[in-house]
Amino acid sequence: MPLILPLLLAVALFCIGVYGVLARRNAITLLMSFELMLNAVNLNLVAFDAWRVDSAGQTLAVFVITLAAAEIGLGLAIVLLLFRGHGHVDADAARDLVEEERPT
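The chain above was modelled as a monomer; its predicted structure follows.
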């Protein structure tokens, strides 16, 4: 299989993920968009690994998958905190969670 086909698929996935991050304000949609972008990176790593016949790309892809799992766990905890505190998961309303500095 030519290298260009998985790379084009990865570009399409990454562009969909960037659009989801920039255009949507729902926290769940933001998390899914981040996952799409990380999966596009994984697809690139594995495609170049198969092209070069090396195992470094697959090893790095496993680390990216581990990072994505940690990110989704932390992201869902933040979304649950936002939902419990405000009753919605709007990312623009997350600014209310920032602590204000106290004058000393």
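The mean pLDDT is 85.
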